[in-house]
Amino acid sequence: MKTRWKTLKRRWIQIICAVLYNCNLTGFAKGTIYQGNLKSICIPGLNCYSCPGAVFSCPLGSLQSALLSSKYRFPYYMLGMLLLFGILLGRLICGFLCPFGLVQELLYKIPTKKLQKNVWTRRLSRLKYVILAVFVILIPLVFLTPGFCKYICPAGTLEGGFPLLLKNESLRQLAGRLFQWKALLLVILLVSAVFIFRSFCRFFCPLGAFYGLFHKMSLFGMRIDPEKCNDCGLCVRHCRMDVKKVGDAECIQCGECRKDCHQCALSFGLKHDIPEPEKKYSDNI
Amino acid sequence: MKTGSEQKTDMNKTTKIIRGSVLAAAVLLLILGLFQNGPADIWNKAVRICYECIGIG
User: Fold this and answer.
1) How far apart are CA B36 and CA A242, in angstroms?
2) Tens digits of residue pLDDT in A75-129
3) Are A234 and A281 within 8 A, CB to CB?
């Protein structure tokens, strides 16, 4: 009962964030986007700023846009925001504050056979770092176009593309091959999310890749009490992400592993006051 | 030769130093960005429909 309540709390935080980020309901009705001052603020999760409902900015879109003009101005503000999000929360943002993560988790609830994590999913989880380096950093710097937003981002297609095209005849006429490619990619990712837990987050999300770099340093997140932990590895075995240890770069800090720990060794909190455990958990996949 | 727990303590100290440095760097970058009118740049981009984002190109 208590663990169900903890899962429900996280779900409510995800829903509240998704609604807060996209509360400009008149935008959906009119097919326009919000143009108020709140758009100068970046939210930490993936949420396209061309979504008619979006009242804040997307960190990835803003970063790529800043890199486009970095020849003229170094993007201090954007880098500072991302570093701050990373160092304070790391991938806890993925587990609690990302609307696209919520969409995938809800799709995974559809009762079908599921693909379990294995050595191949772990290898594929490295792809997101390549996407970060190439599409988010290199392509904007070299080719002066937002590579990830333009060719990959499913949140842009789902939240921005479809709602805007539905309401705007002029935009529908401009949609061509690129929109077809992005729509196809979106469908593939959404369908895969039914069978593979958080498929986009695990294999493709450059924001998750970036925040994962802070897994050792972030101030707040999942902690393991080494005095209570008996190294049974249940937490890693039951985790649906490709983790080798609770709190590593693949851990989205959702806290679902707490219900599996018989020793009550796992908790949320400030990470500085509990020392790191000696051993890694056994990988029984 | 350091024992395992001494090495662990050193690593924790290093983590804390790195954490503090990154936090300080983030705050410094934010302040510099504020002087550079960074929020206005974000706003300027975000209030226009991003054709690349929605698949128009």
Assistant:
1) 40
2) 999 999 999 999 999 999 999 999 999 999 999 999 999 999 999 999 999 999 9
3) no
CB-nearest partner of A87 from B8, B26, B46: B26
Which tens digit of pLDDT belongs to each residue from B2-35?
Answer: 666 666 666 688 888 999 999 999 999 999 999 9
Sign of CA dihedral A36, A39, A43, A48: positive
- Residue ranges of the domains in chain A? 2-212, 221-273
Q: Where are the domains of chain B?
A: 4-46
CATH architecture group of domain A221-273 = 2-Layer Sandwich (3.30)
Note whether B8 contacts A75, CB cutoff 8 Å.
Answer: no
Q: Do B19 and A179 touch (CB under 8 A)?
A: no
Using a CB-CB cut-off of 8 Å, the residues of chain A touching B25 are: 80, 83
CA distance A64 to chain B (A): 11
User: What's the pTM?
Assistant: 0.91
